[in-house]
Amino acid sequence: MASSPVSPAPVPNTAFRALRGQRSPGEFAAAVRRAAREIGEQVSCDARYIGRVESGEIRCPNYAYERVFRHMFPGREPADMGFLPREAVRGRGARNKRNAPPPRTESPVDGHAPFPGYQEGDRARPGGEESEVLRRAFMTGGTAAMAAASLGGLPGLPGIPAPRRAGESEARAVEEAVRQIRLLDDRHGADALYRRAARPLRAAYELLDAGIRRQEVADRLHIGAGELAISVGWLAHDSGRPADARSHYAEALATARVAGDAGLEAHAFCNTAFLARDAGRPREALRAAQAAQQAARGLGSARLLSLAALREAGGWAGLGDRTACEGALSRARTLFGRGPDEADPEWMSFFGEAELEGLQAQCWSALGDWPRAAAHAERAVALQDPHFARNIALYTAQLAGDLVRAGEVEAAAEAGGRGLDLLAGVRSARIRAMLADTTRRLRSYRRNCRVADFLERAPL
Q1: Chain segment 129-154, per-residue pLDDT in tens
Q2: Any alpha helices (H) in 319-408, and if so which ranges?
Q3: Backbone angles phi, psi at 166, to 5 degrees
Q4: pLDDT tens sequence across 92-116
Q5: Residue ranges under compositional bias (Basic and acidic residues) (predicted)?
Q6: For the CA atoms of 405, 406, 411, 415, what is the dihedral angle to 10 degrees?
Q7: Taking the alpha carbons of 42, 44, 47, 51 in that order, is the dihedral positive or negative?
Q8: What is the pLDDT of residue 191?
Q9: Fewer Cβ in 10 A, N or C end of the chain?
Q10: What digits encode the pLDDT tens for the residues 58-87?
Q11: To 10 degrees, the CA torsion angle through 276, 282, 287, 291?
Q12: How many helices (DSSP H) and strands (DSSP E) are in the chain?
């Protein structure tokens, strides 16, 4: 039997290390994230990613990172930054050198693209070849396949036993699954992702039951599994499965308590508060938001505290307490105004000015101040980064609903039409329900020609 080819040892990327200069890996990662926002890209860069690049573990960045690095260092080509050509790492040439068949671009399950809008460039995620194995397992495999993929095994083959011990590669695989789910949700919404995302979540918790030699790896696996539970819980929430979402958030909270991680606990409580508000349980939303603030106080992130204050405002709005709601909104705006910080969690990349406006719109809507709600929703739509397609659709649906309640029926019909256009690329039961409610409210104005045009289009 022919021996398996052995991958060469990583060669440190000294050129990229020189570009970092005197900045720490964390400081440089923050600069990368800022540069990404400047050009409308979304990258989950942290100090660990920078270290993997500099060590040579990541030999070629994905397309998003390449665009960011070109923006940061004008005039430099990837080769000038110490990277190998893409075809030498992931492309056909590299595969031929390894005498391996090229990976399929379709899902082995149904023969179709694994998610709407999928393009070949999307397969190159941070983390190189290991992330490609993870992506294929995430899209097609079950629990055992996920565990095998994290070990560099063969994804998609059933019956591969989970590893008896978990290490660095398993922790990294779970972290990459979290990033990928968030990225796909930002672009496409939750409906198409929820069932598939539950598979790596089960695998992550199986890994926690495996033997773990190093405490650092155990901590990373606990936090990664907890963040994955929150991500899957959000997909359940946005796809109209509140009971599933509640269960996943409770699982994440329990994991946070076991791990003693205040950041994960704050995240779980923030999401629990949002779910409770949407489910019509404002007192529960209020308690969860206050618990989130308590957990976040020692973390040094004003943006996290701002988001938790907005969740509290949503609870007060649901209870009809305008004064308390205004107080919480004022605190949220003050905290937000302190700006981003290195202490801000990676998962908060969505929380910019647009989200601040959108959450304020929801509060004023709950209080029945429709014109004020519509003004905030309109600003949210205008401010949102185009990358967050799902959020643009959400804010547009919010705007349409606020306008129709304010009596601006023609403007509501126009916003509703834009919402329908956006739903062509976004799958969210929550957004569809919002537009359906706007449609029902507009039916009594069907004699208005602009409203009639909208109603003809609305298959809701």
Answers
A1: 333 333 443 333 333 333 333 323 32
A2: 322-336, 353-366, 370-383, 389-405
A3: -110, 140
A4: 334 343 444 333 322 222 222 322 2
A5: 120-130
A6: -50
A7: negative
A8: 61
A9: N
A10: 888 887 788 889 889 988 888 999 998 865
A11: 50
A12: 22, 2
Q: Which residue has the higher pLDDT, 379 or 130?
A: 379
Is there a single domain that holds both residue 92 and residue 170? Answer: no
Integer Cα distance of 185 and 187 in angstroms: 5
pLDDT for 39: 81
Distance CA 37, CA 34 (A): 5
Last residue of one domain, picked from the residues 241, 260, 279: 260
Tokens of 191: 């409906």
What letter would DSSP give residue 105? S
Question: Do 146 and 231 sit in the same domain of this protein?
Answer: yes
Query: Does residue 409 lie within any of the structural domains?
Result: no
- Report how far Cα 434 is from the mean position of its chain's Cα atoms: 21
Q: Tell me which H or E stretch contains 165.
A: strand 165-166
In whole angstroms, what is the distance from residue 382 CA to residue 399 CA?
A: 11
Give me the mean pLDDT over the 297-315 stretch: 96
175 lies in the same domain as 78: no
Section 369-375 average pLDDT: 96
The answer to whether residues 151 and 244 belong to one domain is yes
Handedness of CA 272, 313, 391, 40 (dihedral sign): negative
Structure tokens at 223: 């936090």
Range of the domain at 21: 7-97
Residue 308 maps to a domain: no
Find residue 15's DSSP bridge partners: none
Residues 170 and 246 in one domain: yes
b/e map 215-249, b = 16+ CB within 10 Å: eebbebbbbbbbbbbbbbbbbbbbbbbbebbbebb
Non-local (6+) Cβ contacts of 165 within 8 A are 210, 211, 212, 213
Average pLDDT in the chain: 79
Check residues 439 and 142 and name the one with the higher pLDDT: 439
CA neighbor of 117 nearest in space, from 189, 52, 66 = 189
Q: What is the pLDDT of residues 152-186, one digit of tens each?
A: 332 322 222 355 577 777 888 888 888 877 777 66
For the chain, report the end-to-end CA distance as a whole number of angstroms. 60
Number of domains in the chain: 2
Residues 6+ away with beta carbon under 8 Å from 435? 397, 400, 416, 419, 420, 423, 458, 460
Q: Which amino acid is at 230?
A: I
Taking the mean position of all CA atoms in its chain, how far away is CA 426? 14
On whether residue 84 sits in a domain, the answer given is yes
Helix residue ranges per DSSP H, 279-352: 282-296, 302-318, 322-336
Is a pLDDT exceeding 60 seen at residue 270? yes
For residue 87, tell me if it sits in a domain: yes
Global pTM reads 0.64
* Structure tokens belonging to residue 423: 């739903």
